[in-house]
Amino acid sequence: MMLKQALLPIMVAAALSACAVGPDYQRPQLDMPQAAANVAPVASDWWRSFEDPVLDAMIDESLRYNRDLVQAAARVEEAAAAAGVARAGLLPQVSASAGSGRSQTSAYSSGGGALLDSRQAGLTASWELDLWGKLRREREAALAEVSASERSLAALRLSLGSQVAKSYFQLASYDAQLASARATLQTREQSLQLRQKRFNGGMTSELELRQAEAEAASARATVPQLAQAVTQTEHALAVLLGRSPRDIAANLGRGKALSALAEPEQIPSGLPSDLLLRRADVAAAEASLIAANARIGVARAAYFPSISLSAGIGSASTALVDLFSGPAQTWNFAANLTAPIFNAGRIAAGVDAANARQKQALAVYEKTVQQAFADTLDAMSAVSTTRATEQAQLQQLAALREALRLARLRYDNGYSSYLDVLDAERGVFQVEQALSSARLARLSAVVSLYAALGGGWQAG
Asked: Are the C-beta atoms of 339 and 306 separated by less than 8 Å?
């Protein structure tokens, strides 16, 4: 009979275990745009489509050593440990204790001045009955936070790969611009030497000489500016790769030239219908929303009584040899109930705070979804427009180079002024610089599109 009475609260708890206070999570309804259903997922190693082994090695290095990734991985471990703590709260807790003591009574008391020895050992078990689902909601929130941290790590890996690829392309673009500037400087210095000789021989005017000097000085000023840009980009890329402070100043290896990088095949041109399942940042935002929703239940559970059970078994004796004998055995069982009566609105304020945090998480989730579609649409538009811009500038460069050839031919034969040659040289140099920037923009747009489409991450 006593056993049945002891098990009654446990049976009641089991009967009520399917109930948990607080709202159950439901995914928010969003006004989604029309999307194509046949857009293939992006490969997890999307950067290999550029067919540059140096780029591949750099991204692999960054995914191993980047300090932001190390920090994010530690946050995943922390969240998993917190989930373990929440899970442990659902189970009984057992502890052991042992003690030994000696005391002396007062000489004026009964048995005056007697020495008393005490020995005790025992096991204690305690369990909080989760009648209202508080502990289950805490575990639900903890597991959602683990999911959020894992997906945030996946989003960071994608973002890091994108940053490394774009920085690598930027470095290649600066290399191309620097090579063009140095070639232009060499040509203009040779032209200046020729103008100087012709001026000294009375075959050209001082105006042409000064114009050649100005153009050479302009190219001479451009070279160190681009060299500095190359150095700064190398340092920024080394930090992304997670290299040590000693290695940041080391020169980075070079792969293919910007113009030699492969054009990725089958670049997606439609909006995928499952974009929200592809993007880790959207999944992370939703997991945070699930956690905030569960914590409303944790806050509401404070309105209800809390019941805990405890039991202990052990033995106590004045002599160590009798400690584990039958007569020394002790035991206890207790059930405690606590219920709020007056707390000056503290529980209500906690519920309001939990609701406010859920609203914040919902707003973050909705904004993340909005940004996901905006990023994808922007990237798809950028891929097509940057490709068109690059093609136009290739045609412009070919035309200007031919114009420069004709201008030099006409000047050498006395049919035009040297100013025509300078204008043509200036135009070729400017378009060469612009073409490098256009190629960089096209490749960066492809990287942005891969990232916008989820970059290989798929929701489980």
From this structure: yes
